[in-house]
Amino acid sequence: MSDTATTDAAAAEITGKAIRLDNVTKRYPGQARPAVDGITLEIPAGQIVMLVGPSGCGKTTTLKMINRLIEPTEGSIILGDEDVTTIDGDDLRRRIGYVIQAGGLFPHMTVAQNVALVPKMLGWSKERIEARIDELLDLVSLDPATYRDRYPRELSGGQQQRVGVARALAADPPVLLMDEPFGAVDPITRQRLQDELIRIQHEVRKTIVIVTHDFDEAVKLGDWIVVFREGAQIVQYDTPERILAEPADEFVEDFIGSGAGLKQLSLRRVREVELAEAVVVRAGSDAKDALARIERAGHHHVVVTDDRDRPVAWPSRRELGRIQTLPTSLVPDTPIIGSGATLNDALDTMLVSSAGAALVTGRGGAFIGVITVETVMEAITAARESASERPEGAPVGINTGTLAVQQPAGSDE
Ligand SMILES: Nc1ncnc2c1ncn2[C@@H]1O[C@H](COP(=O)(O)OP(=O)(O)OP(=O)(O)O)[C@@H](O)[C@H]1O
């Protein structure tokens, strides 16, 4: 995951607006049961809400009712404090960015033309549009000079998806709707695009609603996750931490799949836990001196760093006894992990190290402390404990329709 993802969390201003679905129902003609059954759902401004659930449960229908690509049969949609249920649908869609699988780009238009679509419709000046195209391509990590004039067929799947995101953000809409946005790319590109979205969201702070089949993606991206069953019945609407620690019922448990503990680890980062101190010595210095220092400190290992404070080795007392001079270049298999990595990655790194711990690096790869297996275990316990209470002011998600057979978790009523 990108290192920048969790920095400056509070820095950017929220530009998203809250969305509220109020008692919304969708009945398709000829269908006995409603596809969406009396849903009331609050989507907080500036946050990412993931819609998950089995195929056909009504995720896409719920999403598309927000920009009225699908008209609700009953109920209303409130954007900010405006009821948008009856305004012109095309108008509404210009105010809501929409990203679909594979980007949904127009094949006969260049990247620039695709991105410029909505600003053009809104009558922006040529200069403003041109500047915006460059700004957005930069934002999604595509060099404007290289990509502006390319056609979608000249781009990889991941690049097309990036342009899709740039296009959706073009007119700076408060809301972004994404339908399986990363469904059509390979797993590595998918991971990269997810990281990119997290980074972009830290800059733009939109309200983003994403439909996904992939529960791990929901955990990674979501501030909140809605777990649906058929008829868009909300089974649980909670933070990823809470869904993993306190699944509402067996249905949610099945959905989470195996390894809930490991998934919890992927929610926390190395920089968020307390690191242990270490004795640090310079590369190339005397091994016996280093041994004496760690013996005095009661430590069993010494961290050897280069002249830029980057760790190169982590010898034990026994290893120090066998050498004269400390290594000067990186010793293979030294367990090193960046502070932006997840605890899951840290654990992976530790498991291959005989020390059951890893050296943590910060800016410029400089050594900042040691993470141990115990710290990781404590972090899991703490996360479980803090997830046992539903956070105050959590958004509401309930169904009041005819299919509602049980009191959903998270209901206020
Ligand atoms: N245009 C339509 N006409 C009739 N029925 C429809 C229409 N679109 C969807 N449905 C039905 O409504 C229900 C919900 O569909 P929807 O596409 O919202 O589910 P989904 O959760 O997004 O599914 P998937 O994950 O497979 O995309 C399904 O039973 C589907 O068959």
TrEMBL record:
Could you tell me what this protein is called?
ABC-type quaternary amine transporter
Name the Gene Ontology molecular function terms of this record: ABC-type quaternary ammonium compound transporting activity; ATP binding; ATP hydrolysis activity
Q: Which organism is it from?
A: Agrococcus jejuensis
Coiled-coil residue windows:
none
ABC transporter domain boundaries: 19-256
Instruction: Name the residue ranges with Polar residues bias.
Output: 399-413
User: InterPro entries per the record?
Assistant: AAA+_ATPase (IPR003593), ABC_transporter-like_ATP-bd (IPR003439), ABC_transporter-like_CS (IPR017871), CBS_dom (IPR000644), CBS_dom_sf (IPR046342), P-loop_NTPase (IPR027417)
What lineage is on file?
Bacteria, Bacillati, Actinomycetota, Actinomycetes, Micrococcales
What PANTHER family has UniProt attached to this entry? Answer: OSMOPROTECTANT IMPORT ATP-BINDING PROTEIN OSMV (PTHR43117)
Family affiliation: Belongs to the ABC transporter superfamily.
Q: What EC designation does it have?
A: 7.6.2.9
Provide this UniProt record's keywords sorted from A to Z.
ATP-binding, CBS domain, Nucleotide-binding, Transport
Keyword ATP-binding carried by entry: yes
User: Which segments carry the region annotation Disordered?
Assistant: 384-413
Q: A Pfam family this protein belongs to?
A: ABC_tran
Give residue ranges for domain CBS.
330-386
